[in-house]
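Practice problem 4.
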């Protein structure tokens, strides 16, 4: 579903400028974690008879999925909040806009509720790094004379580096918001597992061990 939505989103823009927006960076992140998660689930299912349940270890792919999943959980609602409350929106809100700025959060909410992967609060620096790289990209893009889809000399109105002070304030606010969302998601993850331990029979909570992935 997420892959189909990404394909529709890219085709609807029909230009390389699609890739200059943080919305679309985040959407690609969501799709990547979804694809990797699907692969890991399939691999575990196919190799379930070979589990060693004595200890729980993570493969490099599973660790990578945890990082992507953690970042996506902060990015999705963050993008929705920025779009619907701060950024200038077109007069006519299309279904593509809803797909990119509402559906993304719905997808991650469903994944959060169904996913058994614990969130690491200590992974906050990945969220910071992801958005920090985008900020650096926006500065370089501005310096090179880049324009947005409407031909304006900035990517987002609130990230217009012609007005450095405003752009810096916006960056600080956005980074703070993404970090708050990250720690909120990590806290809610602990609450979710606590409720599972209280309400779900322990025999159903047995976790498998590392799977050799090929």
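Answer key:
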């Amino acid at each position: 579903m997420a892959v189909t939505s990404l394909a529709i989103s890219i085709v609807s823009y029909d230009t390389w400028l699609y890739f200059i927006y943080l919305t679309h960076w985040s959407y690609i992140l969501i799709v990547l974690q979804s694809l990797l998660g699907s692969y890991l689930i399939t691999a575990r299912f196919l190799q379930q008879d070979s589990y060693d349940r004595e200890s729980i270890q993570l493969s490099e792919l599973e660790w990578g999925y945890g990082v992507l999943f953690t970042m996506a959980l902060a990015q999705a609602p963050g993008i929705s909040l920025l779009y619907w409350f701060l950024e200038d929106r077109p007069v006519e809100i299309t279904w593509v806009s809803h797909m990119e700025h509402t559906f993304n959060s719905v997808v991650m909410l469903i994944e959060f509720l169904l996913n058994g992967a614990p969130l690491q609060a200590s992974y906050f620096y990945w969220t910071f790094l992801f958005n920090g790289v985008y900020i650096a990209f926006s500065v370089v893009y501005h310096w090179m004379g880049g324009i947005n889809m409407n031909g304006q000399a900035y990517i987002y109105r609130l990230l217009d580096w012609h007005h450095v002070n405003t752009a810096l304030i916006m960056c600080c606010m956005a980074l703070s918001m993404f970090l708050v969302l990250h720690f909120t998601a990590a806290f809610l993850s602990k609450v979710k597992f606590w409720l599972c331990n209280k309400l779900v029979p322990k025999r159903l909570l047995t976790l498998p061990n590392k799977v050799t992935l090929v």
